[in-house]
Amino acid sequence: MTQTFLLLPGDGIGPEVTEQARRVLDVVAPDLKFSEGLFGGASYDVHGVPLTDEVLNQARQSDAILMGAVGGPKWAKVARNLRPEMGLLKLRKELDVYANLRPAFCFPALADASSLKREFVEGLDIMIVRELTSGVYFGEPRGIDDLGNGERKGYDNACYTSSEIRRVARVAFEIAKGRKGKGGAYPGVTSTDKSNVMESGVLWREEVTKLHQEEFANEPLDHILADAMAMQLVKKPKDVNVILADNLFGDILSDEASQLTGSIGMLPSAALGEPGTPGLYEPVHGSAPDIAGKGLANPCAAILSAEMALRWSLDRADAADRIWNAVGKALEDGARTADLGGSMSTAQMGDAIIAAL
Ligand SMILES: NC(=O)C1=CN([C@@H]2O[C@H](COP(=O)(O)OP(=O)(O)OC[C@H]3O[C@@H](n4cnc5c(N)ncnc54)[C@H](O)[C@@H]3O)[C@@H](O)[C@H]2O)C=CC1
Ligand SMILES: CC(C)CC(=O)C(=O)O
Ligand SMILES: [Mg+2]
Q: Which residues belong to any copy of the Isopropylmalate dehydrogenase-like domain (predicted)?
């Protein structure tokens, strides 16, 4: 049966990097049926909203969606609920893609590209499982109130229900089962929270512990405070295997982990819901307004996000392996964009990966 693939290039470097991912997919999966939609600021400029019902329906009917990135200074003054980033939160929520897999893998050729010494990152292979559709990015009430005395109060609500915690924790445990032997001091799932100061963190730790006892008692589980994990990631990152994190901590820890791999331009992600529902794939990075339109962006994160789509949504592990190996080979052969210390353009990096397929 024909598989359908929706491209949402978005803003800033989004269109530049997704174009390269599309070129790679055209080679390894030429039978995919592609469609494309406006999303984020690009959609706001035309339709006045960052996500139209039409694009949302298109996404619902697709087998996989590849998003570039959204947002940028151009839309800084737009009403908050119409900002590009709000369109992304809505898309994630509507698709109910609650489990966000963010692998931080250091390709051997990039062991010297990290800001950490080679010995700390060579062989690094971490999987971050981030809760994506709840937590403080979605909690109500939220707002900015005028207190009437020249003071204003801004507030968000960090909240989780037990089922929201359990379903993403289950994904983390299942993933850890397939990743035995990785990590050191933290060999299985390491759940992060701030249970020392947050009620939602207390519930997070209790629910993860309960689920572990009920369903995964033979798998290793550690708990660590999220700030201590941030430290661990730059102290001895290879000690860690699977990190389970809420929406906010997972967002921050994955940007931090990206630097261990050489660049944020290397980190892909998969956002998954229940089996049989479309997955949403996107680089971990944003729209990088500082380099947008200059052909400087590293397309690897977008290309590897396409790789994850083939593997996790489209059941095409062979095609995914081809991409994975080609990225590794292109890097081995010296292909580098500026973020990795090289001088290749976005398109040249795409060319190098396609040549290595
Ligand atoms: N999923 C999404 O759509 C995301 C959107 N954003 C949005 O993107 C905008 C910019 O956010 P920032 O905090 O600047 O984060 P960013 O990830 O866009 O950029 C941070 C730094 O990394 C560099 N960078 C990012 N991707 C790169 C790539 N592929 N190749 C080379 N260098 C790369 C940028 O040039 C910049 O110096 C904001 O509007 C933000 O809300 C941020 C993160 C994720
Ligand atoms: C809109 C933001 C929450 C996007 C982001 O930083 C991310 O998901 O990594
Ligand atoms: Mg982020």
A: 4-353
Which residues carry out catalysis? 137, 194, 227, 251, 255
Q: Kindly give the pairing relationship between strand 64-69 and strand 4-10.
A: parallel
Q: Which atom from ligand 2 is nearest to the alpha carbon of 71?
A: 1
How far apart CA 193 and CA 245 sit, in angstroms, is 7
Question: Residue 203's Cα: distance from chain center in Å?
Answer: 24
Ligand 1, atom nearest to 10 Cα: 3
Residue 81 marked as a ligand binder:
yes
The CA distance from 13 to 298, in Å, is: 9
Mean pLDDT of 249-276: 97
Report the pLDDT averaged over residues 111-123.
95
Q: Which domains does the chain have, with CATH numbers?
A: 1-98+273-357 (3.40.718.10), 100-268 (3.40.718.10)
What is the distance in A from the centroid of ligand 2 to the CA of 76?
16
Q: What ipTM was estimated for this complex?
A: 0.99
Mean pLDDT of 62-86: 97
Q: For residues 322 and 313, what is the distance between their CA atoms, to the nearest angstrom?
A: 16
- Say if residue 342 carries a ligand binding annotation: no
Phi-psi label, residue 295: left if phi above 0, alpha if psi -120 to 50, beta otherwise: left
CA distance 246 to 131: 5
Alpha carbon distance 105, 114 (integer Å)? 11
Residues 79-99 have a mean pLDDT of 98
- Greater confidence (16 vs 1) lies with 16
User: What pLDDT was estimated at residue 326?
Assistant: 98
- What percent of the chain is modeled with pLDDT above 90? 99
Instruction: Tokens for 233, please give them.
Output: 């990631």
Which residue's CA is minimally distant from atom 19 of ligand 1?
288
The one-letter code for the residue type at 71 is G
